[in-house]
Specification:
451 residues, alpha/beta, Amidase signature (AS) enzymes, 16 helices, 13% strand, globular, binds glutamine, Amidase_CS
Length: 451
């Protein structure tokens, strides 16, 4: 049924970069055989899942939305890919994304535009916009994403679905093509909170192959999603976000969600997190700095594209030609910004300063979570914007992640759940931020208030 749905709508939506129906049917048959052989499979066995094209897959191409990886077949599966297969999920295809996950609209993909199923003239969010669009368009009930600076929560918010950024280190980065390694966090998309929790539990947990993986049990997220109550919890509204810069429709739905929390028995208090407003500029130093280092591996020798290798040119010339042709404008912008920020003489002024801001954001969270169980805000300042509107304005694009980025810098858990439609008829997301390893709390509150 999902393959039929993809055949019917994906020409218009453009969520998938790769779907191979024969492979999908073979995976489904293999799950049936395992079940028939008496294997104990998890609750998601046989369920189709759309997989962001940033996770390596041995049986499907993996491009990270970049021309530089066109045609690359990974020799190994990401840990999360392995875990999906082990649990019997059927990987229905690889989804479109901003190149190397840099963007908030999926317009930075080197391959195609993905459209928001609610209004095909609008963006599905990004960078995991293929995944969010696939779930919102009923092309798959579940999807994977990665959140480095909002790339799960923002696309979930603007397509009216649930998206969770687990605690950093709670889900493995092994086999996830690196963007900014101190921030990259894989997580689930689903159409309701309980489904997201089931996928979260399936995909997460300690991985010795990821040096920053946390060696602790996965928080009890499924139990929390089933519990779905807020009685006795204290919810903090971030003062710095509440009044600043959100569209009217977003602010109205957010205010209603806070009132709903109160009516369900939560105590609501205002909390000041004075450094949150500096998180976005700090992120745009830290993330590009890590990019300039991580993307050095695309040297035309090891993977994918190679340009101008005709026997007359040096390795350096081939590398330069390949990187000039293989990387898009946003990726080049980040490599240059990061190289500059890390260069001797500027390191202390930019990178060092940004890391200090990161510490201050952490401290704001620590202080807040001494007083409250969770913090809430709108996920994004606006509903889905029109395709093309911000494509030539990086600053406007970056602002889509104003309210999601603090939790990336601090590495704590945060979920986006639908909280109704704005006056323009487009979905609004409520962000619930919980402490490090308090992922279950985000699910508990999210399940109580999702609409
Ligand atoms: N939009 C942000 C960026 O462009 C976040 C991307 C992400 O989380 N992968 O960096």
């Amino acid at each position: 049924a999902h393959l039929d749905r993809i055949a019917a709508v994906d020409g218009a939506v453009g969520a998938f970069l790769h779907v191979d129906p024969d492979n999908v049917r073979a995976q489904a048959r293999a799950v049936d055989e395992r079940r028939a052989a008496g294997e104990e499979l998890g609750p998601l066995a046989g369920v189709p899942i759309a997989h962001k094209d940033v996770f390596t897959t041995t049986d499907m191409p993996t491009t990270a939305g970049s021309k530089i990886l066109e045609g690359w077949r990974p020799p190994y599966d990401a840990t999360i890919t392995e875990r999906l297969r082990a649990a019997g999920l059927v990987i229905i295809g690889k989804t479109n994304m901003d190149e190397f996950a840099m963007g908030s609209s999926t317009e930075n993909s080197a391959y195609q535009v993905t459209r928001n199923p609610w209004d095909l003239a609008r963006i599905p969010g990004g960078s995991s916009g293929g995944s969010s669009a696939a779930v919102a368009a009923y092309e798959a009930p579940l999807a994977t994403g990665t959140d480095t600076g909002g790339s799960i929560r923002q696309p979930a918010a603007v397509t009216g679905i649930v998206g969770m950024k687990p605690t950093y280190g709670g889900s493995s980065r092994y086999g996830v093509i690196a963007f900014a390694s101190s921030l990259d966090t894989p997580g689930p998309f689903a159409r309701n909170v309980l489904d997201a929790a089931l996928l979260h539990e399936t995909m997460s947990g300690h991985d010795p192959r990821d040096s920053t993986s946390i060696d602790r049990p996965v928080p009890p997220v499924v139990e929390a999603a089933r519990r779905a109550d807020v009685a006795g919890l204290t919810v903090g509204v971030v003062k710095e976000f509440a009044g600043s810069g959100g569209d009217d429709g977003v602010t109205a739905r957010f205010t209603e969600a806070v009132a709903l929390l109160e009516s369900l028995g939560a105590k609501v208090v205002e909390v000041s997190c004075p450094h949150f407003t500096y998180a976005l500029p700090a992120y745009y130093i830290i993330a590009p700095s890590e990019v300039s280092s991580n993307l050095a591996r695309f040297d035309a020798m090891r993977y994918g594209l190679r340009v101008g290798d005709d026997g007359t040119r040096s390795a350096e010339e081939v590398m330069a030609l390949t990187r000039a042709e293989g990387f898009g404008a946003e990726v080049k912008r980040r490599i240059m910004l990061g190289t500059y920020a890390l260069s001797s003489g500027y390191y202390d002024a930019y990178y060092g300063k940004a890391q200090q801001v990161r510490t201050l954001v952490n401290r704001d969270f620590d202080a807040a979570f001494e007083r409250v169980d969770v913090l809430v805000s709108p996920t994004t300042p606006s509903t889905a914007f029109p395709i093309g509107e911000r494509a030539d304005d990086p600053m406007a694009m970056y602002l889509a992640d104003l309210w999601t980025i603090p939790s990336d810098l601090a590495g704590n858990a945060a979920i986006s759940v639908p909280c109704g439609l704005a006056d323009d008829g487009l979905p609004v997301g409520l962000q619930i931020m919980a402490p490090v390893l308090g992922d279950d709390r985000a699910y508990r509150v999210g399940a109580a208030v999702e609409r």
